[in-house]
UniProtKB/TrEMBL annotation:
GO cellular component, one term: alpha DNA polymerase:primase complex
Keyword Transferase: yes
Name of this chain's protein: DNA-directed DNA polymerase alpha catalytic subunit pol1
Sample GO molecular function, one term: single-stranded DNA binding
Annotated DNA-directed DNA polymerase family B exonuclease domain residues: 24-292
Keywords, sorted A to Z: DNA-directed DNA polymerase, Nucleotidyltransferase, Transferase
GO BP, sorted A to Z: lagging strand elongation; leading strand elongation; mitotic DNA replication initiation
Amino acid sequence: CLKVVYSSNCPALPSGLEGKSFSRVFGNNASLTELFLVKRRIMGPCWIQISAGSFNASTTLNKLSWCTREVRVQTGTKGISVVPADATPPLPPLSIMSLSIKTNTTKQTKASTGKGRSTAAAPQHQQHEIAVAAYYHNPNLDVDEANEECLRRGMQTFMAVTKIEGVTFPKGPLAKNIVVESSERALLNHLAAMVTRADPDIILGHNIFGFGLDILAQRMQHHKLPAWHKFSRLKRPTGYLPFGHAGKKRDGRGNTGGGSLWLGRSLTAGRLVCDTYLSAREYLRLTTYDLGSLSLKLLKTARAPVALDSLVKFYEDPRALSALAEHTLTDAVLQLRVGWALQVLSLTRQLTNLAGNLWSHSLQNKRAERNEILLVHEFH
């Protein structure tokens, strides 16, 4: 067996590669993250230490992320090691943001014409436009604390509504603390700025992979927002829009399939994403997993549903629109409480520490990968 160091700048070797002096190539599909975790024996979220002299701080001009502090390791992975168990500090508190949106659905028809042909109307399809956004943010949370009271300590809230094209905005003031934006584009820019300022470690939502993040990405692409990557912690080059799946056809539940997970990871790079819909399907055996059903079963709290196709009716009166914004914030609170009742963050962190994979992947219920990485750690 011969070990060969192959640069990551070179293209990946084809599977099943053979030659005159070798018959098999192993490890050619391993990612850089997997190699780093295995070689440095990092078993899930833990404290690591970087040896002195092996790193330097990035300046403001050449930073690759939106993080407050950024360092670059100059000596490869050799200078990185796991802090010994007897010297491990307590787990740090994490910042968590529960995000909720309400969308207005409109039907659009694309017409196609050809030379010498009559105009043919294509089938109508639904387009979602963000009308209301809200979040519930706790900047200092112990994910292992079982008491739900911890969710209220130091909490911060945000509610914003926008004017819908073709719909008269109600006259009169809205409820206190509700921000009114002139357009969907302005709302998205404001929300991105607030997420950057709050800098959450974890973004939580109900069906956030199948609907929420997909809609945010689609609308950001529609408006060509240059600061879309402020939702993440990773800076992107100007003009880079990794939204290849945005606008993909949805099923009856509003899901877009596997592309939604890719969208969510692109839009939230550097942050954990907790989807209470996916987690409930993993941990509970129910006939329906909508937020109202989970809230009633786990929290004994009833949730009044809001039909997206009748959302414009709330724009007839300022009190009704205020109630819609507050309903969106209540959804954000219920999502967080459901996640806490399921103990999603605590359980997935423990599973990740046992298997040695990525916490973000455990939150996506990647069992097969978890088992595979555990075996890789064992036999390395």
